[in-house]
Amino acid sequence: MRRTDPERGLPSLAVSRHERRRALVAGKVRVRAMPPQFWIWAVVVLGAVLSVYAWVAARNLGQMRAHVMAKQRAVAKVLGPTLVPFSEKIEGWARELAAHSGPTVVGPGWNYDSMAQAPGVYLRIRLENARDAKSLRKAAVRSLLDGFTACFFRNTRGYDPSQGQPCISSADCKPHYLCNEYQVCVEPPRPYNMRLLYRALRVLSTEWTDELHLADSDLAVTAYERDLDSVTHRDVPIALDILAQARFATIVVDEPPPNGLPPKEPGDLETPEEQGQRLPHFARIGIWRVSDGAQLVNLRAWAEGRLIAAGPASAGLSEQSVAAQARQANSCALALQVRGLQAPANEP
Question: What is the pLDDT of residues 270-283, one digit of tens each?
Fold first, then answer.
């Protein structure tokens, strides 16, 4: 008869081993519960770590904001003495033109031939946006070189503003070039579009500062710093150079069309400015000499023109192209009326 091997070790240990085997087979393994003090300390330690991390992150974010704000104050020292007073002067003239159209005025010193080639600035806004400085500044960023400037000013540089190196912002262009409304790099235009000046002044606005303070991540603050650097290195030097040369300021204020603006169709990307300009309407044109603030022209004229096709009929044009042609024709008709003004009789 075969003898069984005797159990090794103490009998009490053998009993424990048998009990554990039966529990494993039956699925009734008991896990010793952690003491409550362990979980309390675990929560306390984790909370402390998270609090320290949040404090360090907030301090670093605050330091980044402070660094960007210091750079903004440095830019303000450059812009303050020159660009800000100039923009305020243009805003005052625009509000004056919007408030009182008055009779047609052609002041002493008016000479279209010399003015059309001289460096100057241009601003075009709607009448309702010229009532106060805040709405005027918001509207100015939508001011574009348009059919009026194409028919009124002479392009002495001889380039096509729609041709050039593609760009998204002026940072994509070589020094002393700007990214224009056609998204191509060009030399600063004549006249200088006030929209470009307000783009530079935007980084000093309270809205920009408020947005910076609300930035809640390192990446967001870095984006604002890059925006400030782009304006500082691109827009500001060009603006200072152009405005130092500017001799005339031309402002066009568009009145609402007699029947108002038509309702917008779904998917229509036309801005209110573009809607108003493609419909016949009255517009007020003011031209000032920058050096002494003398107003050379004050004219309220009817903007309505018609393009005559030199080639085949344009029956296949899209609605967008037809609207663009209407804007061009109306604005050009407006410019031709200003060009036809005669200097006072006592002018040489």
Answer: 888 989 999 999 99
